[in-house]
Amino acid sequence: MPASTETDHAGPGRAPVRPVDLGLNAEARTAAADDPPAVHVRAKIDEQLRALLEHEAVARVGEDPEGVHQMRVAVRRIRAALKADGAGLGPAATELQTELRWLGSMLGAVRDIDVQLEHLRGQAAEFEPDERAAVERLLLGLRADRRRARQRMLGALRSRRYTALLEGLAAAARTPAPLDGNVVVGKPAIASLLELIKRPYRKLSRAAAALGADPADDDLHALRIYSKRLRYAAELAAPAGGKPVRRLIRATRQMQDVLGDHQDAVVAEQQVRRLLAELGDVLDADVAFAAGRLVERERARRADCRSRWRTTVAEVDARAMELLAG
Fold first, then answer.
1. Sign of torsion, CA 158 162 164 170?
2. CATH topology of domain 193-326
3. 193-326: same fold as 20-174?
C-alpha cells in the first residue's frame, strides 16, 4: 500500500485556522528590495506562516505526503528568517525557535518515513512480482512506525502548544520593524541584505574545507544542513541580489540534492538492516534476498553521491564569491 494512502482517519480536532484568525491582513506582507533585513524577515515569516496553514489541512488528511513536506519546509524557512542578522525580534525569536524545533521534529518523523517508503518501493519497482511482495513484507515495520509517528504529529497539530506557536508567529510577523529610514547599523539596506549570506556561507565553506578525502557519513549530512541554511538565507536576500543570488540558490539546491541523496541512501540501508533484524524468526528467504538487493542499490547510490559532492561545493563557492565580491 503506498504511503500516501496510509491514513488513520483521525478527527481534525479543531476548525482550520485562517490568517485573518491570527490578526494577519488578507494579503501577505511584502518587502521591497531597498527595505532593511528586519522588514524582509517579517515578510518571510508572514509568507511562510500562511504556507504552514495552507498545507496543514493536507497534512491532517494524510493522503498526499506533500502536505507534511511543505509544512516542514515552511518551518525551516521561518527558522532561517528568525536567525537572520538584523531580524530585530529580540527575546521572542528564541522562544519561537524552540517551538519550531518541536513542531519540526513532529513533522520530520513522518516525512522521513514517507521518503524512505517511497524510495525503497521505487528501488524495487523493477523487481519481479514475488520480490516486490517480499519488499512489502519487509516494509510492514516501517509502515507501523509511520502510523505511530503520524498519530504523534496529529496530536501536536491539535494541541494548544501548536495554536500558541501560530499566534506567536503571527505576532512576530505583525511587529513593526525597527527602522531608521533605509539604513540598518549604518549600512544601506541592500548591502545589509547581502550581509545575510556571509555568515552561513562562511560556516559552509569552513565545514567543507575541514573534510578529508573520505568523510564520515555524519559529516556529509552536517554539510547538507549548512547548504540548506545558506539557501534559505539567499532566498531571504533574493530581492536585493537579482540574478547572482538566484544562481547561488540554484547551486545550493544542487548541493542539497546530492548530499540529500547520499543521506537517504545511508538511512535506507540502516532501515533495511533494522527491519530485517526485527523480523527475527519470521524472516523468510525471499525477504532476505530482496533486502540484499536493496542494500546493494543503496551502496551504489551512496558511492555515486560521494563522487560528485565536491563538484557541487565548488559551484557554491564560485557563486557565493561572485555575489559577495560584487
1. negative
2. CHAD domain (1.40.20)
3. yes
* CA atoms lying within 13 Å on the CB side of residue 201: 23
Q: What is the mean pLDDT of the chain?
A: 89
Q: How many residues comprise the chain?
A: 326
Cβ proximity of 261 and 112 under 8 Å = no
Q: What is the DSSP letter of 119?
A: H
Hey, where are the domains in the chain? 20-174, 193-326
The predicted model gives 176-182 an average pLDDT of 65
Q: What does the block give as the cell for 246?
A: 538566484
The residue that leads in pLDDT, 241 or 175, is 175
**pTM of the prediction?**
0.85
Cα(58)–Cα(128) distance, integer angstroms: 34
**Residue carrying the nine cell digits 544562481:** 247
Cell readout for 86 is 538584523
Per residue in 25-60, pLDDT (tens digit) is 888 898 887 888 889 999 999 999 999 999 999 999
CATH number assigned to the domain with residue range 20-174, chosen from the 4 options 1.40.20.10, 3.40.50.12780, 3.40.50.150, 3.60.15.10: 1.40.20.10
Q: What average pLDDT does the segment 197-207 reach?
A: 94
Q: Grid cell 515569516 — which residue?
A: 45
